[in-house]
Amino acid sequence: MPRLRLVTPTHPAAAPLLAGLRHEYQTTYGPDVAAELDAYSEYEFFPPAGAFLVLESGGITLAGGALRRLEPGVGEIKRMWTAPAHRGHGYSRRVLGALEAAAVRRGYHTARLQTGTAQAAAIGLYTTSGYEPVAPWGPYIDDPRLLSYEKRLDVRDHLATDELDHGEVIVRKMLEHHSLHARLREAA
User: Is-contact 62 91, C-beta < 8 A?
Assistant: First the structure.
């Protein structure tokens, strides 16, 4: 069974996800949207404020996604992708659920995300997962190809642990001695 793993955006397991997204953005929307992948610091996706998840099987990245802090109490889900050969197996739904759980553990009461009008499968996933359309935000606010969604998260069990908590603790310990640690704590 495929397993979820918390990694950094520069981890080798994240490379297929980011390359696949870049290719899809480039071919579907053009280079201006593909450049969005370079718009955020990798540190925005590190715990304690963020998360970068991959779903793997046999060393192959099947799917993944990321979470970053958008504003106090609000996390933004980014980088959702499933390898074309592995679509239709519920992997993106599993990643989305894990990202929502990570958002709750980070104290976010709301999750927001954006997708494009050409991403029919993504639109279906988000709307069937309880996301409601909201006004656009960010650098593509005036782009008619942009769709923005939001979901209130159930925060009643915000201290519940899951299979990824151990990995988050390891990443936090690694970052304690990093020169950017103070800025990461501030971002949280």
Answer: yes
Residue 37's CB: how many other CB atoms inside 10 A?
Answer: 16
The answer to whether 127 and 118 are in contact (CB under 8 A) is no
| Single-letter code of the amino acid located at 141 | I
Tokens standing for residue 35 = 């450049």
* Phi and psi, residue 12, nearest 5°: -55, -30
Which residues does the chain have with pLDDT short of 50? Answer: 160-161, 177, 185, 187-188
pLDDT at 185: 47
Are 7 and 13 in contact by the 8 Å Cβ rule? The answer is yes
What architecture is the 3-187 domain classified under in CATH?
3-Layer(aba) Sandwich (3.40)
In this predicted structure, what is the pLDDT of residue 37?
Answer: 81
